[in-house]
Amino acid sequence: PPPTAGDSRHRPRRIGKAAWPASPGAPAAAMGNEKDDTELQYNINLKAPIYTEVNADPKAFVHSKEWRKIMNGDPVEINPSVGHGLKIMTIDEWTARWKRNDDFPDCLACGSLNTKEHHFTQTWCRGKKMWESELLCMDCHMFSWRSYGDPDFMLPEDYEKMKWEKMVAENTERAQKEAAELP
Q: Distance between CA 177 and CA 9 in Å, rounded?
């Protein structure tokens, strides 16, 4: 059967403790929480300063080899969606498909708004976030790096490691206590 409007697969993710009604017509207040309509955004409610850096070469590994080749005048691989093979390209040709980051459009070196983003990643885990972004200024050809991580951000594997380390410590403590009680 086709999904219905109340199907959980089609509900947008929300910030906060929004409670979805049990049925499509039931009020959210009946569940004990009011519905929060704020969309998830990586650049709001920051709990620490954004780390910034300006570089002549990309900090992100992606495109770092191609950048070196373009600056040396060596051929680089053509975007597979356009064609195949190698070509000597200008910076404008190479960055033609990159988009601008409207959240952080300015170059940290010269202040220009003529920038294009070549690297962006974000990770959300248990309501905490971490992200990084790097822009290329089309005027001064410098790279602007911005990154952020909530102070208490941990990846799922970090939570698991912490849980297992706590369990091992408790078992070790219990074994030492039992050994001390033996005659």
A: 50
User: Which pLDDT score is estimated for 79?
Assistant: 78
Q: Model-level pTM?
A: 0.63
State how far the Cα of 43 lies from the Cα of 135, in Å rounded to an integer. Answer: 16
CA nearest neighbour of 28 among 36, 14, 16, 7: 36
Cα separation, 27 vs 31, whole angstroms:
8
User: What pLDDT, on the 0 to 100 scale, is given for residue 23?
Assistant: 39
In tens, the pLDDT along 77-88 reads 887 777 888 989
Interior angle at CA 134, CA 133 and CA 135, nearest 5: 125
Contacts for 89 with CB less than 8 Å, ≥ 6 apart: 70, 75, 76
